[in-house]
Amino acid sequence: MLFKLPRLPGLAVLAILGTIFASCAPWNATKGQSLLSFSSESPRSLKLVLSRDGFSVFGTWEEASLARYGLVEGNSKDDGSLKLTFYAAATAAPVGNFSGRYLGGEKAFEGDLSLGSSESVKLRFDQGQKLGLRQASLQALSRKGLPAKEEPGHFWFVALEPSSPGAFRAMYRKAFQEGRSLARSMAAARDGVIADFGAAAESDPDAAKAWVYDARQFPSYVGESLLVLGLRVGVVSGGRVLEQSLRYSVLDTRQARRLGPQDFLVEGWEAKLPELLAQSAREELGLAEGSSLSQLGLTLDLPVPSPDFFVYSQGLGFHYPPGALAPDGAGDFFILLPFDRLGSLVKPGVLEAYRLGGGTKG
């Protein structure tokens, strides 16, 4: 059950979220939420899918002309101002930032973007992009197991559920929410997390001081019969970030099933991907062709495909948790394989079926 929230121990948080816990606590959030897709008017074909819950903004960015993809996080304020930070191969090292403001509510936003180059940009709400997702948020405070003088623990969960088609929503609930509705699934997660922290506080009060549990689902890609969702879960307790996790699920909304690399690639892809992954990693890290990845600290010169796979509009991607391929200090690590690099490894007709990489149905 990919999106069932984990129980202690083993809770996690993305490395890029450390500053959010310190400076933007969820219990002080402004009201309201949104889940919107924006596209730029500039030739660089920039697209963002942003989930906003109060002040907190999280999502993904793509630059189709360069086949680039990454995570984006930031915050908004009641005056409409918006700040975003962009990440690509390694979440410990931002690759860009945006500072500006929303226009007309959230019909557009404009400001200064530094992402490869610096420029003023305007991104408009993409009215042609129908996400088909319901977003909900649940926050709770708890002093269970803690002395009255201690700050309460904070539970925060931003979750998604498909609104259509009906058969797909039913499959999703059964597979990822134990058959529950979104509200009941979130409430069960809240009760379980509070109970776990309460038990931990009773046995070791110092370990459960000032705990924050932050879980968020986000749409990584929404396309023709294709939905890619991400889940990141985070915990801060006793003044420490405990662990970090991020995982994806690629879903076919028409056939109501989960997809893997084998649904996009021809037989034998496992043996051919390591060299392609190494090539992409070198390019993203600015290394010369044929140079050693291990010299930069990666554990393998020929990376093996990670079990955490995702799809974006221009290719496939593989996510590696901290320490799995790159050093812990690099944070979460991503390698992208654009479809034009995969070439004949891509199954005939699959790009047209899902309208990926510019493919259209014949």
Strand arrangement, largest sheet?
1-2-3-4-5-6-7-8
Give the low-pLDDT segments: 1-29
Give the helix level as a range of percent.
Answer: 10-25%
How would the global form be characterised? globular
Largest sheet: 8 strands, antiparallel, barrel
What report would you give on this structure?
With 362 residues, this protein is α+β, with helices and mostly antiparallel strands. 18% of the residues lie in helices and 38% in strands. The protein has six helices and 18 strands. The protein has helices at 18-23, 166-176, 182-203, 269-285, 339-342, 350-354, and strands at residues 33-40, 46-53, 56-63, 68-76, 81-86, 96-103, 108-115, 117-125, 133-142, 153-162, 212-223, 226-237, 240-241, 245-252, 257-259, 308-312, 315-320, 333-338. An eight-stranded antiparallel barrel has the order 1-2-3-4-5-6-7-8. Strands 9, 10, 11, 12, 13, 14 and 15 form a seven-stranded mixed beta sheet that branches. A hairpin with a 2-residue loop joins strand 2 and strand 3. The protein is globular and about 60 Å long. The protein starts with 17 loop residues before the first helix and ends in an 8-residue tail after the last helix.
